[in-house]
Amino acid sequence: METVNIHAAKTNLSRLIERVEKGEEIVISRNGKPVAKLGAIQTEPVIDKPRQFGQWEGQVWFAPDYDEADAMIEKMFEDELEKDWKE
């Protein structure tokens, strides 16, 4: 990774950006101390490895009745439907 001072960065910004587009990273320094890093912006998501199905197996628990309807809630819906039909 190359280091350039601020004056050189301002003078050669277009050239530095071309290098960054090719994958380089450039450190910009002031008085010999690094203050910024010039690098490319990632435009596509990085997928390190494909997703694996079943990754959560054994780590997530569902109650046996998690998808059963609650009787009280069903009654509330039924009462509302009957009220709508009567009106």
Description:
The protein has a domain at 2-38: YefM-like domain (YefM-like fold). The protein is an alpha+beta fold and 87 residues long. The longest helix is centred in the C-terminal third of the chain and has 16 residues, at 71-86. A hairpin with a 2-residue loop joins strand 2 and strand 3 (33-38). It is built from three helices and three strands.
Number of helices: 3
End-to-end Cα distance, whole Å, is 76 Å
CATH third-level topology of the domain at 2-38? YefM-like fold
Mind telling me which CATH architecture of the domain at 2-38 this is?
A: 3-Layer(aba) Sandwich
Shape: elongated
Largest sheet: 3 strands, mixed
Mean of the pLDDT scores? 87
Look at the structure and name the CATH superfamily of the domain at 2-38: YefM-like domain
How many strands in all?
Answer: 3
Task: Give the strand order, joined by hyphens, for the main sheet.
Answer: 1-2-3
Radius of gyration: 30 Å
User: Any low-confidence stretches, pLDDT <50, length ≥5?
Assistant: none
Short summary of the structure?
The chain is α+β, with helices and mostly antiparallel strands and 87 residues long. It has helices spanning 6-11, 13-21, 71-86, and strands at residues 2-5, 26-30, 33-38. Strand 2 (26-30) and strand 3 (33-38) form a beta hairpin.
Any chance you could write out the topology, listing elements then pairs?
Elements: E1 2-5, H1 6-11, H2 13-21, E2 26-30, E3 33-38, H3 71-86
Parallel strand pairs: 1-2
Antiparallel strand pairs: 2-3
